[in-house]
Amino acid sequence: MDINAAKWAVLVGLLIITLFLSMLPLWLLWSVRHTIDQSRKAKYARVISLLSCFAGGVFMATGLLHLFPEVDEALTKASWGHGFPVAGFLTAFGFFLVLTMEQIVLDYKETANIRVLSRGEPIEGTDNDVDQVRRRGGSVVGVRDHPLTTSFDGSSLDPAAAVDADPHSTFRSVLLTAALSLHSVFEGLAIGLQGTVDGVMQFFLAVSLHKAVIAFGLGLNLAQSRLSLWAIVRANLVFSLASPIGVAIGMGIEDFGHSMNESIVNGVLQGLACGTFFYVTFFEVLPHELNQGGDRLLKLLATLIGFSVICGVMFLDPDAAPSGDASCARIT
Predict the structure, then answer these.
(1) Do the beta carbons of residue 300 and residue 49 sit within 8 Å?
(2) How many domains does the chain have?
(3) What pLDDT is attached to residue 234?
C-alpha cells in the first residue's frame, strides 16, 4: 500500500471512530431521559454515573501518564530551562490561568446577581437569597464530606433525577474539549510524519486504542453539561477532527521534527493544555460524581478501572506512551 494512501485511510478511520464513540453518550442520556419506567430510569442513571467515574479515571491516567511526560520530553529534547522544571511550571501555569479566568467570570456573575437582588428583582432558580446565589455560582469546590441528597430548592434528588440535577460546568466542559483537541493534533502529527506504512499502522493502533476510551469519556462529560444539543455535536466534531487535521499537517510538512524551535512550541502548548486538563479532571469530572451520595465504593472501583485501562494500553503497546522513539519524539 502506498504511504499516502495509508495515511488518508488512517485519517478517515480516526474521524469515524472518534466521532461515533463521542456521540454515543448522547444516545445513552437520551434513552435515560425518555424512559417512563422510573425503576429502569434509576438503573440507567446509576450506570451513567459509574461510567462518568470510569471516564474520570481515564482522564487522570491520560494526564499523569501520557500528557505530562510528553511535555517533559519535548522540553528536554529542546534543552530548554537549564535545570528548571519547566514542564511542571507550564502545567501549573495552565492550571492557574484557567482557575483565574473562571473565578473572574464567576465573580462578575455573582456580583451582577447580587445587584439584581439588592434592587428587589427575583432571580430564577433561587430563593432570592444572597448566600444561595453564591452557592449556585458554580465556583470550584472539592469533594464534599457529606452526600448531596437535596437540590438547592430543598427537594430530594433520586438517582434518576440526578442525571440532570447537577450538570457539568459548561466552561470546564469546553476547556476539556479544547485541551484534548490540542493534544490530538499533536498525536495526528506523529502519524502524519511516519515514513513507512508499518509505522503509520503501528501509530494508528496505538492512538486509536486510548483515543476511543477518551472520546467516550469526553462525550459523556459534554452530554451531561448545560450545552445545547448542537453545541455538543459541534464540540464532538471539533475533537474528532483534531487528529485527522494533525495527520494532514504532518503529511504536508518536511523536516518538521528536526527543529528545536518547534520542540519548544510543542512543549509550551502541550504544557498549557496539560494544566487545563488537570484542572478540569480534578475540579469538575471527578467531584461531579463523587459529591453525589450512594455507590461510593462502586464509583471508586469504576475510577480505578478507568485508570487501569489506560495503564494497560500503555503497557501492552509501548508506542502509546511517550518514550525515546514514540510520538513526542517524532514531532519534536
Answers:
(1) no
(2) 1
(3) 92
Is residue 179, in this structure, part of any structural domain at all? yes
Distance CA 232, CA 134 (A): 27
Residue 324 lies in a domain: no
User: Does 132 have pLDDT greater than 60?
Assistant: no
Q: Which residue from 318, 164, 281, 275 is spatially nearest to 226, judged by alpha carbons?
A: 164
Residue 144 vs residues 172, 283, 290: alpha-carbon distances, Å: 19, 12, 8
Check if the beta carbon of residue 201 is closer than 8 Å to that of residue 1: no
In this structure, the chain runs to a length of 332
Please tell me the distance from the alpha carbon of residue 76 to that of residue 86, in angstroms, as a whole number.
Answer: 9
Mean pLDDT of 38-61: 82
* Contact in structure between 324 and 317 (CB atoms under 8 Å): no
Considering the domain boundaries, does residue 149 fall inside one? no
User: 327 lies in a domain?
Assistant: no
The predicted-structure confidence for 222-234, as pLDDT tens digits, reads as follows: 888 888 889 899 9
The residue segments making up the domain with residue 94 are 3-117+166-316
The CA distance from 238 to 241, in Å, is 5
SS (H, E, C) the chain: CCHHHHHHHHHHHHHHHHHHHHHHHHHHHHHHHCCCCHHHHHHHHHHHHHHHHHHHHHHHHHHHHHHHHHHHHHHHHCCCCCCCCHHHHHHHHHHHHHHHHHHHHHHHHHHHHHHHHHCCCCCCCCCCCHHHHHHCCCCCCCCCCCCECECCCCCECCCCCHHHHCCECHHHHHHHHHHHHHHHHHHHHHHHCCCCHHHHHHHHHHHHHHHHHHHHHHHHHHHCECCCHHHHHHHHHHHHHHHHHHHHHHHCCCCHHHCHHHHHHHHHHHHHHHHHHHHHHHHHHHHHHHCECCCHHHHHHHHHHHHHHHHHHHHHCHHHCCCCCCHHHHHC
Question: Among residues of the chain, what percentage have pLDDT more than 70?
Answer: 76
Return the residue matching grid coordinates 522513539.
Answer: 325
